[in-house]
Design a protein that fits this description.
Elements lengths: L3 E10 L4 E9 L2 E7 L3 H4 L5 E4 L4 E4 L1 E6 L4 E2 L2 E2 L4 H10 L2 E9 L6 H12 L6 E7 L5 H13 L3 E5 L10 H14 L2 E5 L3 H13 L6 H6 L2 H18 L3 E3 L5 H12 L4 E5 L1 H5 L2 H4 L20 H11 L4 E2 L32 H10 L5 H15 L17 E11 L18 E11 L2 E4 L24
Parallel strand pairs: 1-4, 1-5, 6-9, 9-10, 10-11, 11-12, 12-13, 13-14, 14-15
Antiparallel strand pairs: 1-2, 2-3, 5-16, 7-8, 16-17, 17-18
Helix pairs in contact: 4-5, 5-8, 8-9
Length: about 475
């Protein structure tokens, strides 16, 4: 049964264009665009027509950094693939790329299969996987080639978390060399975890146990140093590098210097670094624990450098690093010892709205909003033009966005499975109204009409900035 949907009267905004156009969807894909009121558009008929007058028609968001059901610090991220992808849809995101985890001593295949099993039949929107490598050895290096062929074409390494995910420089170099050969992209958590562990131990010995000390021990210079080191190792290996959750001005400077040399080095930041700060970590009565993530929130003055990096394209992507832990019973594990607070914030539902607020505030343009939230993550991780744009042949992942409605972000109204909002009480202008995933209505006029199991695993090609 062929189904046709027509979206009429909206302003279509992509990374490249803004046009008043009608959009015809057929069998889950974009079939055509035509100027609103043109003869071509006037002749279209459809089973369902959506009125997008005074609305933006934008590609579904691509959140390339989420952690559903991630085991961490003796507990698990509180969003399942079902609850997390539903919340993503509410926030205008139609594709996530989550992180499968290899356990030390086990194969990449075993870790990936465990994540396939978690997600299968549960997701409301489409999804892919990156692979966290916790144990780089001859066997796992060989597995990288097979995963790239399978559509899992990016691998995350950690310079942080000794004893958990940490890789030393030799392991990192070997993985980068392999990626240079097989087309994979190395994603790096760039913080000097060995040095940070010393500072953690010293802080606790001084009785500095509150959440704010999490930010103080994970120093800006140790993010910048690790970013510099990762870039040099990638140069030696002849490999591209994508640095995740960049939070500090000095780390942006390292990326900018590398890019000025023409190196294939890319950077991502997250809404929490753009909108929150160490002021939140210092909130009294252990409330600061809600804001513990790594890299940590920085003093407010770093925000200007991050916005500038997004405007100059020294930072290319805004993802969420969505990794929620409830305040009650999970974040509270670190009462009396900040190092035991599970690291991570909820955000998959808030990203598109917060970045639209950045458009309203004049930090970025409308097209740049779509570029950093939809098109570039799709290109970076081998999903474009299937995802990330509105063009004939693309998947019909489309959001009807109301740029005028003012909403207040709150745990009372969000759909993430977590008992607090990192943005509680913040008002933003703009709200998702209707969401289609491959042509199917997932959110219809602010009502959830999707279902677990609609979302499909989406294999990815290699990074499209390297061709």
């Amino acid at each position: 049964m062929s189904t046709r949907t027509l979206i009429r009267g909206g302003l279509v905004v992509t990374a490249a264009d803004e046009i008043h156009a009608d959009v015809l969807i057929e069998d889950g894909r974009i079939a055509a665009l035509a100027a609103h009121g043109s003869d071509a558009a006037a002749g279209w008929t459809a089973d369902r027509t959506i009125d997008a007058t005074d609305r933006y028609v934008i590609p579904g968001g691509v959140d390339a950094h989420t952690h559903m059901e991630l085991p961490f610090g003796g507990t698990f991220a509180s969003d399942t693939f079902e609850t997390g992808t539903r919340a993503a849809a509410w926030g205008g995101t139609t594709t996530i790329v989550d992180f499968a985890v290899q356990s030390v001593g086990r194969s990449l295949r075993e870790g990936l299969d465990a994540w396939y099993a978690k997600a299968d039949g549960q997701c409301a929107i489409d999804y892919g996987f990156h692979m966290i490598m916790s144990d780089v050895n001859e066997s796992t290096l060989k597995e990288m080639d097979r995963l790239v062929q399978e559509g899992v074409s990016s691998f995350k390494l950690f310079m942080a978390y000794p004893g958990v995910f940490y890789s030393d420089d030799g392991q990192i170099l070997r993985a980068m060399q392999r990626a240079a050969d097989d087309g994979g992209l190395i994603m790096m958590h760039a913080e000097n975890g060995i040095a940070i562990d010393v500072l953690v131990e010293q802080a606790l010995a001084r009785g500095e146990t509150d959440p704010r000390y999490h930010g103080e021990v994970r120093k800006v210079l140790l993010e910048a140093e690790a970013t510099h080191r990762a870039i040099q190792l990638a140069r030696v290996a002849g490999a591209p590098l994508y640095v995740v959750h960049v939070s500090a001005e000095e780390a942006v400077a390292e990326l900018a210097a590398a890019r000025d040399k023409g190196l294939p080095v890319f950077g991502e930041t997250c809404p929490q670094y753009l909108f929150l700060s160490t002021d939140n970590l210092a909130e009294p009565d252990f409330e600061g624990a809600k804001y513990v993530c790594s890299t940590p929130l920085r003093p407010k003055e770093h925000q200007a450098a991050l916005w500038r990096g997004l405007r100059t394209n020294d930072l290319q992507v805004v993802s969420t690093d969505h990794c929620p832990f409830c305040f009650v019973g999970q974040k509270e594990l670190g009462r009396g010892d900040f190092s035991k607070i599970p690291n991570g914030l909820p955000g998959v539902e808030n990203r598109m709205d917060l970045l639209h607020q950045a458009v309203v505030d004049g930090h970025i343009s409308r097209r740049r909003w779509i570029e950093i939230a939809c098109a570039t993550p799709a290109r970076m991780f081998g999903l474009y033009p299937q995802k990330g744009t509105i063009a004939p042949g693309a998947d019909a992942d489309v959001v009807i966005y109301d740029p005028h409605t003012v909403q207040t972000l709150s745990a009372e109204t969000h759909h993430m499975n977590v008992d607090y909002s990192a943005y509680e009480g913040r008002t933003v202008t703009g709200q998702v109204e209707t969401v289609l995933s491959r042509g199917e209505l997932v959110i219809d006029q602010r009502k959830f009409t999707g279902r677990a199991g609609h979302g499909a695993f989406t294999p990815r090609s290699t990074c499209q900035y390297l061709n």
